[in-house]
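Lab notebook: predicted structure, single chain.

Context: the supervisor wants predicted structures on file for every construct in the current expression panel, including those that have not yet been purified. This is the next one on the list. No modifications to the sequence; it matches the entry in the shared construct table.
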Amino acid sequence: MKVNKYVNLIELNDSSLLLYHQVTKQYIIFDTLSKKVFYKAVAENSLPTHLKKELIQKYFIVADDYDEKLQLLTPVRNMFTYSTANLDIIVHLNYDCNLKCSYCYQNVITEKVVMNDKTEKDVIEFIRKIVLDKNPEYIYLNFIGGEPTLHTDKMIRIMQACNKINNSFYFSVVSNGTFGNMKKIEELLHLGLNDYFITLDGARKDHDKYRVYESGKGSFSTIIRNLKRIQEKFPEINIKLNSNLNDENKNHVTELLDVLEEKEIKYPLLFSKVISTANGKFDKTIEDNDSFWYQAHKQAIYRGYDFKPYGREINLACMMKQTNCFIIGADGFLFSCIEAVGMNEFRQAHVNDYDSAMFEIIRSQAQNIGYAYDTCDSCEFLPNCDGGCYYKRSHDDFVCPKSSFENDSLMIIKEIFEVKS
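Prediction complete. Output recorded below exactly as produced.
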């Protein structure tokens, strides 16, 4: 027998051993056990019978001739990639925005299109067709921009139409947080708004460097005020805060956590990495060998924030390769990558082309993109990388994340379970 190569073995500070399975997301913790002793017991087939049976059933250990990729990862990934149980729809209502963020990936879009009435109707009809065609159990529809709350009337009309099609829609919005019309937010809530993602790039000093209005004025105060009002008036809305880390604000995560604690803003927090776009490298992009990712999560974990292992990495398969994920641009065209909306290289068919042979043929091209390197096929982190980001590869900005997984992700998992135990 051998340990499944997609299982992370992490020694915790209390001398216990954590086994975390990247494919199944299951974990087991053994008291007072080291990696060395566990590997030896597996190799010598000396595990207690009941424990060995459980570990085999949950694919933590496998036969010596077992091919983990061929016999486990690929079938599970295919089930996920081609599943009709879930339907993911991302709708860009617009490319215009009331903020001018220096690092925004949509800065590559020169024409700030707003979805017109005809395209809006086309999108609704497209959604109706795919829902009836695929009959999914869960339908996730995310509104994004630009800044989608600049056009809440469009959002409301689409939500109303979707609710007439099917009652299984789960609506979310990605916003910069400057929208403060509580009556409109209440209307969105009644139509089924569940998740509301809002960005804070640090405490005031950092945030207001990057997320400013056209006038140059910072947006921090407005966002904090809106968060407090939403928290008080609509506690049922699942606000999720996102903080984009760059080479400056990475050292000030504690200051952001202090502000949130002081203001009694109690929402889940996610971190994101500012990436370079096809237009060029953002001058504050963090080098890939920087330990900021671990340090930021460690500080937040010890303040009571909860994170999932590999929470911001690719889960089994990139959106680009998922057959039931549809990224719709403001002009009604589908794009294979959310970071590349508006770029011709990533543009696919129009929503009106659904049901045509060319629609499926064009979409299938992105679904068959290969790995970045030959070594990806045998890598133990493949379930959380899927062979490397194609968008980054397209403009020569991709660096193999293996060292980051080893030095950051595994350490973050350790911190998560240290707190749990």
